[in-house]
Amino acid sequence: MTVHARPPVPPIADPVSDLPAVSYEKLEEVFDDIRGHPLYDHEIHGCLNCGICTATCPSAQYYDYSPREIVQLLWTENLEGIYDAMQEKIWACAQCYTCAARCPFENSPGGLVMIMREVAIKHELPAVKEVLRPFSRVLLKVVSTGNQLAPNMITKEAFPDWGPNVAKVDAPLMVLRKAIPMPTMHTLDTAWEVNLRTSVELYTIWEATGVLKQLESVDENLFDVVSDVMEEKRDEWEEWLEDNEDDGDDED
What we know:
- With 252 residues, the chain is mainly alpha-helical.
- It has two domains: 24-123, Fumarate Reductase Iron-sulfur Protein, Chain B, domain 2 (Orthogonal Bundle), CATH 1.10.1060.10; 133-251, no CATH class.
- Helix content is 52%, strand content 0%.
- α4 crosses α7, α9 (136-145) runs parallel beside α13 (220-251) and α11 (196-208) crosses α13 (220-251).
- The longest helix has 32 residues, at 220-251.
- The model has no long low-confidence stretch (mean pLDDT 81).
C-alpha cells in the first residue's frame, strides 16, 4: 500500500491585510492554549446557534461583535476564525455576562472571551498592545495600588480614543455621588486608601502569578514605571519594619 505524505498547509493570510501570514502550526498552538485553559470546559457545553446571547448582548448593538460567533468558532474549532476574532472582536466584550445568564446550554461566551484575551496576551498578539494602550493609566493605578482610577481622571484630553461619550464625565460628578448611599463613595478620589503593606503584598502577588511578566510584554514602558513605583514602596516598607523593630527593642 502506498502511503502519501500529507501536503504542507500554506500559511493563513488575509489578502487585503498588511499583517504577515500565520502558520497553521501557530493557529493550532493558540487554540490548544485556549482549549487547555482550566475553565474552558466549564464555559462551553455546546451551541444550538439560537442567537439569544447576541440578541441580549449590549456590545453587539454597537460593535462588530457576536457572542454566538465566538461560541461557534470555538465549538467548530475554526482556527482561522478564532485567530481573526482575537485581533479585534473579543476586545469589544463588556464582560457583563448577560450572555451566560441567557444561554439555554449554560455556555458563557463572556468567560470564553476572557480566556481568549489571556491567550492573546500570552502570545503577544499585536492587537493586544493596540487595545490596551489607552488603559495604561488605569493599569498603573490598579497594579500599583489595587484601586481603579478616580472618575475625574477620565478626561477627553487623556482618553481621546474613547470616543465622544467620554464627555459625559463633565457632569456634576460630586453632586451625583452624594446620592450614593455609601459615604465612602462620596468622593472623586479613590474610595479607600491602600496602606503600604497591602500595596507591597499586591505587587508580590502580581509578580508571583506572572501578571507583571505579561504586562512587560504588552507595555514595556508601563512595566518599568510600575517596577520603579513598587520598588520604592518595598524600600519604604523595609524602612518601616526596621524603625518599628527598633521601637520594640527600646520598649524591651
